[in-house]
Amino acid sequence: MHALRIDPDATVTDLNLPAPDAHSAIQEHVGSDAVDQAVYHRRAVLLIHGSGLKLGLPQNLAAWALASAWRGMPLYPLAGPIVITGRTTSGDMAALDNDLA
Predict the structure, then answer these.
(1) Regarding beta strands 93-94 and 82-87, do their DSSP bridges make them parallel or antiparallel, or are they unpaired?
(2) What's the whole-number mean pLDDT along residues 54-80?
(3) pLDDT tens for residues 13-55?
């Protein structure tokens, strides 16, 4: 499943997540078993470290700017590495569409 990882230093990495175990791979990329899902675009999901800000992980300004642009307003800070996947109309995780990658 195609996804992107955005690191706090603004590095963007293409990911190919294993379909049957994508959630475990996302946990590894984000660095936490507690992964929060945030929807700022109708066709994408941001998967965020559940305690990133509380733990003092570095802010992810690139992911914050993208999410804020998608939402049309400034959002709360995002921290740590963030994975972006696609989203089906029913809200399930899916491969990220090429026009969003």
Answers:
(1) antiparallel
(2) 94
(3) 999 999 888 999 999 999 999 999 999 899 999 999 999 999 9
Cβ neighbours around 14 below 10 Å, total: 10
Residue pointed to by tokens 């992964």:
35
Q: How many CA atoms lie within 13 A of 79 on its CB side?
A: 13
DSSP per-residue codes, 4-56 = EEE-TT--EEEEE--GGGHHHHHHHHHT-S-EEEEEEETTEEEEEETTTTTTT
SS3 call for 68? helix
- pTM for this one? 0.92
Residue 86 belongs to what H/E stretch? strand 82-87
C-alpha pair distances (Å), 58 with each of 3, 5, 25, 72, 82: 21, 15, 21, 23, 11
What is the arithmetic mean of pLDDT over 63-76?
93
